[in-house]
Amino acid sequence: xxxxxxxxxxxxxxxxxxxxxxxxKTFPKELYTLVDTLExxxxxxxxxxxxxxxxxxxxxxxxxxxxNNQFNHVPKILAKLPILSMIGIRNNQIKTFEENSLxxxxxxxxxxxxxxxxxxKSIGDLTLLQKCMLSGNELSSIPDTFNKCLNLELLxxxxxxxxxxxxxxxxxxxxxxxAYSANPFCKKHPDSNIKLQTIIWDNLEIKELLGEGAxxxxxxxxxxxxxxxxxxxxxxxxxDGLPQEEMDIxxxxxxxxxxxxxxxxxxxxxxxxxxxxxxxxxxxxxNLGLPPSFESCTRDIYPLDFSLTSxxxxxxxxxxxxxxxxxxxxGIMHGDFYAHNIMCDKDDNxxxxxxxxxSYYEPKEIEIRNDLERLEIRAFGxxxxxxxxxxxxxxxxxxxxxxxxxxxxxCLNKIPRKRPLFKEISKQLDEII
Length: 433
What we know:
The chain is of the alpha/beta class. The chain is built from six helices and 19 strands.
């Protein structure tokens, strides 16, 4: 409780951000001395079950984190906070989400891993909502009012109890990143049961950690004198859904030069974890972008000194369009089609990875198949927009830039059914000279 003593002593007067994780059972009154300045409050990892009735005094609060506590409801007092834009209440026991419980300023909502059976119709009033994380609940339907969330760009509804796909989502003009796997209406990809080569954990020489994400950790390893990558799945609920679904999609993806290839399944992990052996991406490859910040919410960010030529952007986009055609022909939507999931080398060769948000749909259901593909096409349009921005000082390839700009406009069309499909996009990109 050292931080509370610091606040009491007046040492943190004027603070804009406070984090306390010390087993709190009641809301600390000491925080009221900061009501005039506090913008970010993180009370994750405590034992709180309610907020005080005068919590609305924190008029300047912009971001609130209450994950890993004991809430069984979405605190209705939040609706009285005028500029609160980000709310994270993950991994509680929330069953109750009453009408009009959230402020209209809500931009980013995280309710992953709770016990929600329904959503209020008033969620449609959140017209500024851009990112909404609802995976790991017990939702059996999505209210039709969701189609009023005209700024919604990223939605996670995996691992719920949805018996049919929420058709109301398909008309949303900005929805670009959607994950819905592990619901009752979802079928398994027919290739997810393909028998891969199985190797034994003890036959691997595990090297350094390469990266860690929500669904698992990736290590470099040696197998039969060859360098490979090993992904160890955590098996816990992630913001995207269940890691088992990601593993199934990895297996079902097939081979493509612009995708990370799965080489084998690994058995007999010491802790019984699910493990895949993947193609090792050479160390000469780096991430094209960085994940969204709190401020950018749904859009990737790039270092200030990062730039590309339009010709480089074109080659990367050609590779990604080719990968997208391959995926969607197999009924797979990536769901997280972002620059930060694309690795590139100095020759602009590109590889798309991270299938944690991927979902399967029946390719024979032509209408919904094309509608879902067009959601991902908007994500592709955002990627074009970003690459045009980082190549804005390139005056040498004006023909490429002008053509990409026209393609960007088509991909970002506010009427989803007016967007081109990936086959057409890939053809257009390959014809640019």
